[in-house]
Amino acid sequence: MATSSDVLVKHFRQILIWPLQLMPMPRKSGESRAMGRQWELMQEAAAAGSPWQPRATEFDGAPEQFEERHYREFVTFLPYVQRFLYGENKSSGLGSYGHSPLHVFRRTDISTVLMMFKDGAVHHFKVAHIDLYFFYDVDVVILAFEIVGENLPLKRVQDALFRFGRAFPAQWDEDSTAANCLRKVAWLNASGEVISESDYEDRAGYLAHLGQYRAPRMASHWDFLMQPLVLHHSAAAGALRYRQIEYHRMPILAYVAVDDPFKLSDEDFYRLGMVTRPGSEDELPYTRKIFSEFESNCCFDRFWVPERKHASTSTRMMCNGHAFVMVGMHANQFYSDPFTGVLGQFRHQHFLMALIAHFHKSSLLMFSDRLAVALSELDLKDIQSIRTFKREIRLLLEGFLRFNQRYWFREVSNQVVSAQLFKMMSVHLDTQRLHRDVADSVQSMNQYLENDDLRRQADTVVRLTVVTVFGLVGTTITGFLGMNLFGLAEEPLLQRVGYFIAVSVPITWLIFVTVAKSKGLAEFLDAMSDERVSLRQTIKMLANVWRKKKS
């Protein structure tokens, strides 16, 4: 069997999917704060000359120019997923879903990615597309970054998968280079000029930023790529702010085409599927148990039968949540055709399934984080803090309800392969459990608000009851004596108005005092109605009503 160094990857594609949490937009005067409207600011930035421009969809062209690959992509998904991804035609009439809640922006100023590896080797990868996905009503944005390579050693492909998609270095080696990162990454324009490059070697800068903001700094090339979005935990100015929501290693999709996939060893498949660094000859091999667990948990082998060594059984797909990787035969049209083959499905159907799965997880993490922040900022001694807490919780309740109805899918397709792959992604990302946890938290918050409203209503009823009881004394007396105790009907108008004011002011003051002391008076009334409470204790409770309580 050939070693990794003997295998040449004829065609290679890597798609990074980087979910980020968007910070809430400032509340406008007289308006409630809305979620998921950052795309409106992106449209304004695009009009002002930002490199991120709204991406046209396949439905924006003439109907007769609609391609079969778009048709195949569309019919892969179930109707409710189609409406999410593509929306509906404006002419659908009443009951129409309307436009898609997706808002996609693309930048085209970056044509090539330069990667310098640990051994000093430099490779250039063509950029297929760079997109930002915004979602209506959800404070999440997802970066999709696809690169293409040709005729690369398998070890180099493994190294690119392992090192490229890292937002910042986790540590540094003895030679001051960032461990597990590329030595250098640079964005090149169409003329080959460097427009931004990494700063992984700036160890002092990363440490200082973490010490100041208690949050890691993004590498300079990723920071440049995301502008006008800026990192929230930084001194950068900007209304569009984001923060890290998952691990700093970006989820990936990878397509690997080789001449003979049957030459790859179990270790090669494991390193590709689990996105580990390429192995060396002096390293200890993995055990058979590890390979067995990997094959049972992470491999989709519907089209992989190595014993037959036939082109129709030469495609292997692997998924572990963080990565979705497929390996197949380059000469096999079923695998390599960019329109009707697996390559076309990888770039469209499989990419969208991964996008949905990671959107589910990142959105649920966002809701969980926002609930935790709302609780942490609650001060029960501050009336304004309580009001802000209630507004934020109700906003999150509304947002989570809309998320459930618009975005939450347990299934996305009835096609066997697509359905099983999406299920694998969801299981590894554990989105079902996360959804239950967030739903339970939201329900608990909702129950708390309902109980608090009921408590306040009960307090109001008690106060009104106390005022009514004490007001009943005056009502009974005036009713017994009659309303003509004073003969003022013949008095001048000005004198009658004076009597009215003289009586209204103390009565109004008495009512306000009764309301203010209603809690203590209610306890006094309860004591009076309780035969077990002595007269002395009852009088003492009445006296306590007028004592000023210590804070």
Task: Give a quick set of tags describing it.
551 residues; single chain; 45% helix; alpha+beta; 14-stranded mixed β-sheet
Characterization of this structure:
Helices cover 45% and strands 17% of the residues. With 551 residues, it is an alpha+beta fold. Strand 4 (112-116) and strand 5 form a beta hairpin. The longest helix has 51 residues, at 431-481.
Strand fraction band?
A: 15-25%
* Straight-line N-to-C gap: 81 Å
Mean pLDDT: 87
Shape: elongated
How is the topology of this model organized?
Elements lengths: L7 E15 L15 H10 L5 E2 L13 H9 L2 H8 L15 E5 L5 E5 L5 E14 L2 E16 H10 L20 E5 L5 E4 L5 H11 L6 H7 L3 E2 L9 E4 L7 E7 L7 H8 L14 H11 E2 L15 E4 L3 E7 L3 H4 L5 H35 L6 H24 L9 H14 L1 H51 L11 H24 L1 H12 L5 H11 L6
Parallel strand pairs: 9-10, 11-14
Antiparallel strand pairs: 1-6, 1-10, 1-11, 2-3, 3-5, 4-5, 4-7, 5-6, 7-8, 12-13, 13-14
Helix pairs in contact: 2-10, 10-11, 10-12, 10-13, 11-13, 13-15, 15-16
